[in-house]
Write a structure and sequence with these properties.
heterodimer; A: 437 residues; alpha+beta; three-stranded antiparallel beta sheet; 16 helices; globular; B: 472 residues; 2 domains
C-alpha cells in the first residue's frame, strides 16, 4: 500500500496528545458561549448550560438523564477539566484567542466562520470543517484510517475487539467466590477469543501464556488471592472484570493489529471520526460481543466511483475521500441489504419485530455507510413504501421490544426515520402478482 | 460361509450396565430435539409427557370460559386466542399444551367439564411451515386433513350406527356388553363384523337416514353412498376423503362441506360443538399479503359468525388460535378491516375472557417439568435419593436461567447434560459446578449463535474506490 509507509509514524505523540473528550459538539458549544460572553467565568457558565442542553457527558455516549442544577464539588472539578480541554483544543486550532491571564476570551475570524457554518448547515458540515483543523494539526486520522484498512487481511477494513463479560459466557455473578472461579472464567474467555481470532481475523493464536500473565498481574495487584481456593473481596468484582476487558482489548489493538497508540486514544479518535462520518465504531453489533471499528473513507490519490466525496488533501498529494453513496444509484442495493439483514436477524431472534438499531449496524457494515446516510436512505425507503412503490412492506414502530431495557437506549439513540423516532422494524417481503391490487 | 450361520465379531454383553442405570433411568428421558411432532411414537417428542401443573392457570381459564359454557348459548365464545407472553418464541410449550388440551377434551368429549351440557371433540391443526397455507381455502384443506386424522368421522359413523342398531335390535346391548369403546368403534367400522353377526347394513343405513339433522344434506353427501344404487351401503372415512378430494373441486364447495355439511353430520351423531386448536397461527399471516390477510379474516368471520353456514348459525366450531407475541400487530389492520377486531379483539383495551395469556416458565415450573420427564423413565422399583435425581434443585435453576426459562431449551440442555454426566463414572449428580464445567459444550451446540458477519458480505471500500465504474 503506498500510504502505509508514509504513515508508519516514527513519532506517535500527536495521536497520543489528543484532548480527552469525545463530542465535537463541545467545540461548538464553546464557540457559541464565547460569541455571547467574553469573561472566561461567564463563558464557563454558559458552556455548562449548553452542555446540559445537548446532553454531553464525559463518556462517548450521550446522557439521557438531565443533570441536576446543584453540582457537587467533584463533578464541578470534572466539568472544569473538560472545559479546559476544549478551550485548549479550540485555541490550538486558532478558533479562539485569550488575554494573557485567560480572564477573557474572544472568537477569531476562523472561529466565527465555523460557528456560522454550524448555524447555517448543521453539525455534519461543522464536523467536517473541524476535521480539517484537526488533520492540519495532528495528521492522526490518516494513521487511524490507514491502519484500519490494513489491520485485518481476512475481512478487509474490519477491526474486531471482542469482549465477553462473565455473564455472557454463562458465569453469573453469584457463583464467583474464589480465584478458581475466575480461572474457570478466564479459560472459557481464552477459548472464545482464540476462536474469534480464527473466525474473524483468519489467524491462529494461542493465548494461554498471555492469560497466565494477566492472572499473575491480578494477584500481584492484590485483586485476587494467590491461593486458588481463597475467596476474593466481592467489592472488587467490577474492577477485576474491567481488568479482564481492558487487558484483552489492548492486546488485540496493539499485539494483533499492531496499532501503536493506547486504547483510550484510539477510542477518542475513532468516536470523533464517527461523528465526522469517516469511521464507524460500535459496541452493539448484533451477535458480536465487543467493539467493531471500520473506516468509511479511503486515502488515495484518486477514486473511480462517484460514491466518494473529497474531504481533505494531504501535503503528499493523497486525498481523503468519504464514502457517501448516492441514493439514485444505490436504492436497490440498500433495499436488498435491509431485507437480507432483517431476515438474518429474524432467524436469530425469532421474532417479527426486530430492533432497528441492530438492523442499522448490519446495513452500515455491509454497505460501509455512516449512520446519517442510513437514516437518510431508510427515510427515503420508508416513504417509497408508504407510497406503495416497493415490493416489500415495512412497518416501523416506536415501541421497545420487551426484553430490551431502558439502559440500552442511553447508548443507542433512537433512529429518526421520516421525521419520527423509531425503535423497531418488521418487513413483509411477500412477492407475487396476486398481492398487488 | 452362509450369512445365516456367521456371527458378528462384537456382541452386546447382556450384563452390561445400561448407560443411564447409575441414575436409575432406563434411558435419557429428555428429547434431543424438543419440538412436538404428533406423529412420532416417542413420547418424549409427541407431547405425550405433559406436566399439567405447569400451565394450570391457562387451562383453568379455558375450562371456565370455554369448556364449561353451554354450546347452545348463542353468546358463547366462538373464537379465542392463546397469546404467548414471551418474545423468545418457539419452544415455550404451546404445542405440548395444545396436544394435551385436545387429549383432555377428547377423553370424555367434554361431557365431564360441562356437566353433561356439551359433547365436543377437538381437532389439532398446524399450518404448513413453508408458507403454502396463505389463503382460507388452503387453510380449510389442512383443517379437513386434521379432521380426518383425528378419527372423528370414524367415531361419528360408529355413534350413528350404534344408535340405529340399538333401536332395531332388541338384544343389541347384550352383544356389545363386553367391548370397550375402542373395540366398539373398530367393529362398527368393519363391514365383515356386520356380515359375520348377521346385521343388515341396508336396514341400519335406512334407520340412520331418518335422523332429522341429515335431512338438509345433499344427496351426494358421502354418508348416502349406495342409497340410490345397488352398491354396498357400507360407508367409511375413505368415502369422505374421496368425496372431498375428487368430487369437490371448487374451494367454495369445500368450505361449505366443512362448515355446513360436516357440521350437520356431527350434530346427527350427537355432538353439539368442536374445538379447533390452531397451533402456530403466525405461519399463516407471516406469508400473506395485506389483501390475503384481509380476505382470510373476512372468510373466517363469515364461517364462524355471520355467514349462511351451519357452523355460523349454530356456533358449532370454537376456534382457538395460538399466537406468537408479535402476531397481533401483524394482523391488526386485516382484523379491524374485516370487523373481527370489533367482534373478537386481539388487542383489547381491557382484559377479556377470550384471550388466554400464555405465561413464561419459572423455576418452580422447570423443576416440575424435569421431574415429570424423569419419572416417566425411572427404572421400576428403584429408589433415587430425591425425585429430581441426578439433578439438584440449584442445577435446575441454573439450567432455567441459561435457557431463559424456555421449555424447549431447558429440555435440550437437560438432555445434553445427562448425556455428558453418563459418560464419566465420577459424576454422581448434576449440580451447578458440573454445569459450569460443561458450558462450552452447551454453547457450541446452541443454534442461537449464528455468525452474521460473513466473508465477502461487507463492501470492501478500497476495492470499490479503485474499481472502474460499471457501464450503465
Amino acid at each position: 500500500m503506498q500510504n502505509e509507509s508514509a504513515t508508519e509514524l516514527t513519532d506517535i505523540s500527536p495521536i497520543q496528545s489528543v484532548k480527552k473528550f469525545y463530542f465535537l459538539d463541545y467545540i461548538y458549544i464553546l464557540l457559541d458561549s464565547v460569541s455571547r460572553h467574553s469573561k472566561t467565568q461567564d463563558v464557563f457558565m454558559s458552556f455548562l448550560e449548553l452542555k446540559r442542553l445537548y446532553r454531553l457527558g464525559e463518556s462517548k455516549y450521550k446522557k439521557l438523564t438531565v443533570d441536576t442544577e446543584n453540582v457537587t464539588d467533584g463533578r464541578f472539578r470534572r466539568y472544569l477539566y473538560t472545559f479546559d480541554q476544549v478551550l485548549d483544543e479550540a485555541s490550538d486550532y486558532g478558533l479562539i484567542e485569550s488575554s494573557d491571564d485567560w480572564t477573557t476570551i474572544r472568537l477569531t475570524g476562523k472561529g466565527e466562520e465555523l460557528l456560522q457554518l454550524y448555524k447555517r448547515k448543521g453539525s455534519i458540515s461543522f464536523n467536517e470543517a473541524l476535521f480539517k483543523f484537526m488533520e492540519d494539526k495532528y495528521v492522526a486520522f490518516r494513521y487511524v484510517i490507514t491502519k484500519l484498512h490494513s489491520a485485518n487481511k481476512n475481512l478487509p477494513g474490519l477491526l474486531f475487539l471482542p469482549s465477553y463479560s462473565p455473564r455472557q459466557l454463562g458465569f453469573e455473578r453469584k457463583i464467583f467466590r474464589t480465584t478458581d472461579d475466575f480461572i474457570d472464567y478466564s479459560m472459557s474467555l481464552v477459548r472464545r477469543l482464540e476462536n474469534d481470532i480464527e473466525q474473524y481475523i483468519g489467524i491462529r493464536r494461542k493465548l494461554s501464556t498471555e492469560n497466565a500473565k494477566l492472572l499473575k498481574r491480578l494477584t500481584t495487584a492484590g485483586l485476587l488471592p494467590s491461593d486458588r481456593n481463597s475467596s476474593f473481596d466481592p467489592a472488587k468484582y467490577n474492577i477485576i472484570t474491567k481488568r479482564f476487558r481492558d487487558f484483552w482489548m489492548s492486546f488485540f489493538l496493539n499485539r494483533i493489529y499492531h496499532y501503536r497508540a493506547s486504547m483510550p486514544s484510539f477510542d477518542i479518535w475513532t468516536y470523533r471520526g464517527k461523528q465526522i462520518g469517516i469511521i464507524h465504531a460500535t459496541e452493539f453489533h448484533p451477535n458480536f460481543s465487543g467493539k467493531i471499528v471500520y473506516p468509511l473513507s479511503v486515502i488515495t490519490n484518486s477514486v473511480q466511483s462517484k460514491d466518494f466525496t473529497k474531504l481533505y488533501t494531504y501535503k503528499d498529494g493523497n486525498i481523503l475521500f468519504v464514502h457517501k453513496p448516492r441514493w439514485s444509484e444505490n436504492q436497490e442495493k440498500f433495499v436488498e441489504t435491509i431485507v437480507k439483514a432483517y431476515y438474518d436477524l429474524r432467524r436469530v431472534y425469532r421474532s417479527y419485530f426486530i430492533n432497528l438499531a441492530a438492523l442499522r449496524e448490519i446495513v452500515c457494515l455491509n454497505m460501509k455507510i455512516s449512520e446519517k446516510v442510513f437514516e437518510d436512505f431508510m427515510s427515503r425507503t420508508y416513504r417509497l413504501n408508504l407510497a406503495g412503490k416497493l415490493q416489500i412492506r415495512i412497518s416501523l414502530e416506536v415501541d421497545k421490544l420487551p426484553e430490551e431495557t431502558n439502559a440500552m437506549y442511553l447508548k443507542r439513540e433512537p433512529i429518526m426515520v421520516d421525521k419520527k423516532y423509531r425503535n423497531i422494524i418488521a418487513i413483509d417481503a411477500t412477492k407475487g402478482g396476486e398481492d398487488h391490487e | 460361509m452362509s450369512k445365516l450361520t456367521r456371527k458378528p465379531s462384537q456382541i452386546q454383553r447382556p450384563d452390561a450396565l445400561a448407560r443411564f442405570q447409575k441414575f436409575y433411568l432406563t434411558d435419557n428421558p429428555f428429547p434431543a430435539e424438543p419440538y412436538v411432532n404428533q406423529d412420532s411414537v416417542d413420547k418424549r417428542v409427541n407431547g405425550g409427557i405433559y406436566e399439567t401443573e405447569i400451565h394450570k392457570a391457562e387451562f383453568q381459564q379455558i375450562t371456565n370460559n370455554f369448556l364449561k359454557k353451554s354450546q347452545s348459548d348463542p353468546n358463547h365464545l366462538r373464537l379465542g386466542y392463546i397469546i404467548d407472553e414471551s418474545y423468545i418464541g418457539r419452544g415455550n410449550g404451546k404445542s405440548a399444551f395444545l396436544v394435551n388440551l385436545k387429549q383432555i377434551i377428547d377423553q370424555e368429549y367434554c361431557l365431564d367439564f360441562s356437566e353433561g351440557k356439551n359433547k365436543c371433540f377437538a381437532v389439532y391443526v398446524s399450518p404448513e411451515a413453508g408458507g403454502r397455507t396463505k389463503t382460507f381455502p388452503a387453510f380449510v384443506d389442512i383443517l379437513f386433513n386434521s379432521i380426518v386424522k383425528s378419527d372423528i368421522i370414524k367415531n361419528c359413523l360408529a355413534m350413528l350406527r350404534l344408535d340405529a342398531m340399538k333401536r332395531i335390535y332388541e338384544n343389541f346391548d347384550e352383544v356389545i356388553k363386553s367391548m370397550d369403546d375402542e373395540d366398539l368403534v373398530n367393529n362398527l367400522n368393519t363391514e365383515e363384523w356386520f356380515v359375520k353377526n348377521h346385521f343388515d347394513i341396508a336396514t341400519i343405513a335406512e334407520e340412520i337416514y331418518g335422523n332429522s339433522f341429515l335431512q338438509q344434506l345433499p344427496s351426494e353427501f358421502p354418508l348416502f353412498q349406495g342409497r340410490s344404487s345397488f352398491m354396498s351401503r357400507f360407508v367409511s372415512t375413505t368415502h369422505f376423503i374421496d368425496y372431498y378430494r375428487n368430487t369437490l373441486k371448487k374451494s367454495a364447495d369445500r368450505i361449505n362441506f366443512v362448515f355446513s355439511n360436516l357440521v350437520d353430520f356431527y350434530l346427527s351423531a350427537g355432538f353439539n360443538g368442536a374445538y379447533i386448536l390452531v397451533d402456530d397461527f403466525e405461519r399463516i399471516p407471516d406469508f400473506q399479503s395485506e389483501r390475503q390477510k384481509r380476505d382470510f379474516a373476512l372468510q373466517l368471520r363469515s364461517c364462524l359468525f355471520d355467514g349462511s353456514y351451519s357452523s355460523a348459525r349454530t356456533g358449532f366450531y370454537d376456534f382457538m388460535l395460538v399466537l406468537h407475541a408479535g402476531v397481533p400487530r401483524l394482523v391488526a389492520d386485516a382484523w379491524s378491516l374485516s370487523g373481527m377486531e370489533h367482534r373478537v379483539p386481539m388487542l383489547p383495551k381491557i382484559s377479556s375472557n377470550h384471550i388466554i395469556r400464555f405465561e413464561k416458565l419459572s423455576k418452580k415450573h422447570a423443576i416440575l417439568l424435569l421431574r415429570k420427564y424423569l419419572s416417566e423413565y425411572r427404572i421400576e422399583g428403584s429408589k433415587p435419593d430425591y425425585p429430581l435425581f441426578p439433578f439438584t434443585e440449584d442445577a435446575v435453576q441454573r439450567i432455567g436461567e441459561l435457557s431463559e426459562y424456555n421449555a424447549a431449551r431447558i429440555l435440550k440442555m437437560a438432555n445434553e447434560l445427562l448425556e455428558k454426566a453418563a459418560e464419566s463414572e465420577d459424576v454422581k449428580s448434576i449440580n451447578p459446578s458440573f454445569i459450569n464445567k460443561s458450558l462450552d459444550m452447551l454453547e457450541e451446540d446452541s443454534s442461537a449463535r449464528v455468525p452474521i458477519i460473513k466473508k465477502g458480505e461487507a463492501l470492501d471500500l478500497q476495492k470499490k474506490a479503485k474499481a472502474k465504474r460499471a457501464k450503465k
